[in-house]
Amino acid sequence: MSGRITEIDDGLYHIYESLGVFCTLIAGDAKALLIDTGFGFGELPALVRKVTDLPLQVINTHGHIDHMMGNRYFDGAMIHEKDVPLMKQHSSLRTKTLIYLASRKNLSGKERKHRSDFFRKSGTPVSLVRDGDVIALGNRDVEIIHTPGHTQGGICLLDRKTGILLSGDSFSSHVWLFLRESASLPVYRDTVEKVLRRREEISGILSSHSLALFRPTLLEKIRHTAENLTLEKSRPFDSGFAGKALMYVEGFEEVTRRFGYRTFEEMMGHIEKIPPRRLRRWSLLLWCSAERNWAKGSFSDLTLYLNEE
C-alpha cells in the first residue's frame, strides 16, 4: 500500500506513508498544505509532487513520532505550542531506536533504505500555531482547532471548502488517551463538546490511520461512550509498545457477526483485510485507562469503532 494516493474530495488527498500512517494533502489554487509527515520511511516529497507543484506548507496534528519524523524532508513545519516538548521527546535517539526495533520487520526493503535518514537529527525549523489560526491556500481556508485528548497539543484542521475535518488522532476509529502525554477524560469530553458545537460545518471526519471517511455522527457516539463508560465492565488490555491499559467494549458482537473475530486483539491482527467502508458500520467502543489513573477515578483512553448504520 506504501505510496498509495487517494483523492477523498476536490483537492484533498490521503497519502499512505508507511506503517499504517496516512498524511493528508490539501491543494488550493495558490498554496498546498501537507498535514503530518509520517515516520519518514516513505517517499513523501515525491508523492506530494505527483499531486501538486504549488508552494507547500507543512503542519503536524501532534508531536508523536509517526506524525512528524518526515518533517526533515521539508523546509519547515508547524505544530501547536503545547506539543513542542512531546515533539522533542519523540525526536530523541532513544525513542527512534525503540520504534525502529519494534517496527523494522514490517518495513519493506525500499522503506529500510531510509533508515539512516530516520536516525539523522532533523534541522527543520518549527513554528507555532494556536486555536483559531487560519491557513490560507488561495481559494480555500483551513482552520486550526485545538483538540486536547490524545495529546495536550493535538489539533484538528477544518477544510472550510469541503467541510472535512482532518482529525489526526483526536477522533478516529482508534483514539488512545491512556498515554502519559494524554489529557484526562473530562478534558477530552470538553474537546468533543467544543467540536460538536461546529457540527453543522462538518461534512465528514478523516483520521490519520484509516481511509474511512466517518460521518459527523462519530462525535455524538464518542460523547455517548464517554458518558456511559463503566469500570466494572472493563478488562486489561496490552497495547504493546505504548503500555498496558484497561479496556471497555460495547457492541463487539456486531464485529463477531460480520467478520468472525471474537476479540479486539484478533480483529486488529487482521485489520488490513477489512474494507475501509466497513469501519463506518461497526458498533465497537473500546475504552482504556492506564492503571495509574484508575485510582484517581480518571479514565484516560478511548479506542472505538462506531456504528454508522
| Number of strand elements | 18
Strand content: 25-35%
User: What helical percentage do the residues reach?
Assistant: 25-40%
Indicate the radius of gyration in whole angstroms. 18 Å
What pattern of helices and strands is seen along the backbone? EEEEHEHEHHHHEEEEEEHEEHEEHHHEHE
Strand order of the largest sheet: 8-9-10-11-13-14
> Roughly what is the average pLDDT, rounded to an integer?
84
Number of helices: 12
Q: What characteristic shape results from the CA principal axes?
A: globular
The end-to-end distance, rounded to whole angstroms, is 28 Å
Major beta-sheet overview: 6 strands, mixed
Assign the structural class, choosing from mainly alpha, mainly beta, alpha/beta, alpha+beta, or little secondary structure. Answer: alpha+beta
Low-confidence stretches: 282-286, 289-309
3D structure, described in words:
This protein is of the alpha+beta class. The chain is built from twelve helices and 18 strands. The strands form four sheets. It has a six-stranded mixed β-sheet with strand order 8-9-10-11-13-14. The chain is globular, with a radius of gyration of 18 Å.
Give a quick precis of the structure.
The protein has 309 residues and is of the alpha+beta class. It has helices at residues 44-51, 65-68, 84-90, 93-103, 109-112, 115-119, 185-196, 217-228, 252-259, 264-268, 276-279, 291-294; strands at residues 5-9, 12-18, 21-27, 32-35, 56-59, 77-80, 126-129, 134-136, 141-146, 155-159, 164-168, 174-175, 204-207, 213-214, 235-238, 244-250, 284-287, 302-305.
